[in-house]
Design a protein that fits this description.
The chain is of the alpha/beta class. The chain is about 45% helix and about 20% strand. It is built from 20 helices and 18 strands. The chain has a six-stranded mixed β-sheet, sandwiched between helices. α3 runs antiparallel to α4 and α19 packs antiparallel against α20. The protein starts with about 25 loop residues before the first strand and ends with a helix.
Length: about 675
């Protein structure tokens, strides 16, 4: 996190502190030019953002969104032009790396308030020196910044982002990578900043935390620059959209007033005026109108189905805004559609000694579209893995149709790609008899065009790998889709294309996602996974579900601590004893996790060594036939071992997370 002039005393500037915004202050880019790799990334980039604006930054991958943030922070310098910032502005951003420190989580979050920490350090020195005058001055500064409530504010940030009260005293090193990113986000929010830079802040959050973050950002009095591919999040937080669009010469920035939906309508109107694209736009809009009419005839009266219908009715008017999207694909009709496809009867599942789900009953038939809701760690991914057959039942039955064909997407599958192979080879492996041009055309719908289909997967971004995994899944014509956070790493255009494709999918689907737009546009019914059960949720995503979360959070808020110091001492002693008991109880799981991580590291090194050997062109001559065969056999064994070890590692992670959150009897 970067702070401008953290040593200067400042007024409180976090949500709820009532700081007045200086309307004359602004962030101004004037004629900015930047060249990278022999090409102009920005040329004459000019725009102005006023203090207090909440501006979403959109644009295709490679348009320069993250580069824009680096220019604002001063970690990258433009080749020409000027960036104007008000003097003394404090800038906060989310750190991308987290040291495995033994510092308690709440203290790590408090470190985000650099001014508070600086005053505390100065006060310690003043007390050691016996400088009473300096102490009085520093105490006055602490009063000015409301330092006495800082720890409470930090605890609220942690709670809002999904941490349990017991997590506050756990060392940072005890958290997984995703939870450390939440700590980094909390640290950035703790900073009393004038300008907050957030780059995909929802990537590591579940829907509960996303809803909380929305509310927090809406009350943030500073200026916000937000990169996000979550359109609902942008709709509820942003009041301006800065759209970066790549042209032949360089990226161009256009500033729109309003949220993402307003931007989408404005952009659709602009593109509709461009004659060259009008025919394609008319075809897209007509297609969407036909689909809406077909869906209207069979839509049930369920709230979620009606919500989806309202979403679809908006599609024709915004189709033009996405006419220049590089992504266009659809699910081919499944070969067979038996009914039911899959039935779960009184299913129970868990990890280790912990049972997470009990008595789950779920029947899936063609046309069923189920969205899974529930708090983090409640078992949504466990249910998906149970349906996929990756996790064995502890009791109950899982009955699949004879012609059941599952398409399962989860983030860990990105690691199963053959890094030395290209996208075309991956697809050819699925269908060796297909013509190359047909496969190239199919991959083109997922953004892999030209020579890109022949480039190794290893250097692909997370978004490109996710698109390739989705392409492989779509090609296999599944009749049941199980999608666990499919939009992570995907940009707005790819998310839109995925939503369109899923809307016309003929089979059944079960979706876990923190992207409400996707849930609202492709699912007809919701299932709430919480407290060990999976039950139908009759409410909607926009009103009832946030209310349910708020009520649950209110029930979990601990009672105010007693002011009796002896009682506090006893409570702390009990807490230390319980923490020690929990550490002893969880130690076997931690040891198991460490062993699996070491095994993954060893297998990963073996895989890299084999891929490097297979990349040697001389290996494919006739003289090296035996060596090639041995390497391919070894590659198969290593890949199988990797898949099994990764599955075991995921089970151990979820078991440890569940155990960490469980109360000790």
């Amino acid at each position: 996190m970067y702070h401008a002039r953290p040593d200067s005393p400042r007024q409180e500037s976090g949500p709820g502190h009532g700081t007045l915004v200086d309307c004359a202050a602004m962030l101004r880019f004037t004629d900015i030019s930047l060249h990278r790799g022999g090409r102009a990334l920005f040329a004459d980039l000019t725009f102005t953002l006023h203090a207090g604006w909440k501006c979403g930054v959109t644009g295709a991958n490679g348009a320069g969104k993250s580069t824009l943030f680096a220019l604002v922070r001063g970690t990258l310098h433009a080749d020409g032009g000027r960036i104007g910032l008000p003097p003394g502005w404090v800038i906060a951003h989310v750190a991308q790396e987290t040291a495995a420190t033994e510092r308690a989580a709440i203290d790590y979050v408090l470190d985000g308030d650099a001014e508070l920490r600086a005053i505390e350090e100065a006060l310690t020195h003043a007390q050691a020196a016996g400088d009473g005058l300096a102490e009085a001055t520093l105490h006055a500064q602490l009063d000015t910044i409301d330092a006495w409530t800082a720890r409470t504010r930090a605890a609220r940030l942690l709670n809002g982002l999904g941490f349990a009260p017991a997590d506050e005293t756990r060392p940072v090193s005890a958290f997984s990578g995703g939870w450390r990113m939440r700590l980094n986000l909390a640290q950035a929010l703790m900073c009393r900043s004038d300008l907050l830079l957030l780059d995909e802040p929802t990537n590591h959050l579940d829907l509960d935390a996303v809803l909380w973050l929305e509310d927090w950002l809406r009350t943030y009095p500073g200026t916000l620059l937000l990169i996000s591919h979550d359109r609902d999040f942008l709709d509820r937080v942003a009041d301006h959209i800065l759209h970066l669009e790549v042209h032949t010469e360089a990226a161009r920035a256009t500033l729109y007033t309003g949220n993402y939906s307003a931007f989408e309508r404005a952009r659709a109107a602009e593109l509709a005026r461009e004659q060259a694209a009008s025919e394609k736009q008319r075809r897209e809009a007509a297609h969407m109108r036909d689909f809406v009419e077909r869906f209207r005839a069979k839509a049930s009266k369920a709230r979620q189905a009606q919500s989806r219908l309202k979403m679809l009715e908006r599609m024709p008017e915004i189709a033009a805004a996405h006419v220049d999207s590089p992504f266009h694909f659809e699910f081919r009709a499944p070969e067979k559609l038996p009914a039911p496809l899959l039935v779960l009867k009184d299913g129970a599942a868990g990890y280790g000694d912990t049972t997470i789900l009990h008595n789950v009953n779920l029947s899936l038939a063609p046309g069923d579209r189920v969205g899974l809701l529930g708090p983090n760690g409640a078992g949504k991914s466990t249910l998906i893995r149970l349906l996929a057959g990756e996790l064995a039942l502890r009791s109950g039955e899982r009955i699949g149709a004879r012609d059941l064909k599952i398409g399962y997407f989860a983030q860990h599958q990105l690691e199963h790609l053959h890094l030395g192979d290209n996208a075309l080879t991956h697809l050819t492996r699925l269908d060796p008899r297909a013509r190359e041009q047909e496969l190239r055309d199919f991959l083109g719908g997922f953004g892999f065009v030209g020579d890109r289909v022949l480039e190794p997967v290893a250097p692909f971004s997370g978004g490109e790998k996710a698109r390739l995994v989705l392409a492989l899944l779509v090609y296999q014509r599944p009749n049941l889709l199980l999608l666990d956070e499919p939009t992570n790493h995907l940009d707005l255009e790819m998310r839109h294309a995925l939503a369109l494709a899923l809307q016309e999918f003929d089979g059944a689907m079960v979706v876990v996602s923190h992207d409400r737009y996707l849930l609202r546009s492709v699912t007809d019914r919701l299932v709430l996974v919480a407290d060990g059960t999976a039950e139908a949720f009759d409410g909607d995503l926009d009103e009832e579900y946030p209310k349910w979360l708020a009520a649950r959070r209110a029930r979990q808020v601990p009672a105010p601590a007693s002011t009796d110091t002896s009682r506090l001492a006893i409570n702390r002693k009990d807490q230390r004893r319980q923490d020690a008991d929990k550490r002893r109880q969880n130690q076997p799981l931690k040891n198991r996790l460490k062993t699996l991580e070491q095994e993954l590291e060893r297998l990963g090194a073996d895989k890299a060594r084999i891929n490097a050997a297979l990349a040697d062109g001389t290996l494919y001559s006739g003289a090296e036939k035996d060596k090639l065969k041995a390497l391919l056999l070894e590659q198969g064994r290593v890949q199988l071992a990797l898949a099994q070890t990764e599955s075991a590692w995921l089970e151990a992670c979820e078991a440890l997370e569940t155990a960490d959150r469980a109360d000790i009897p």
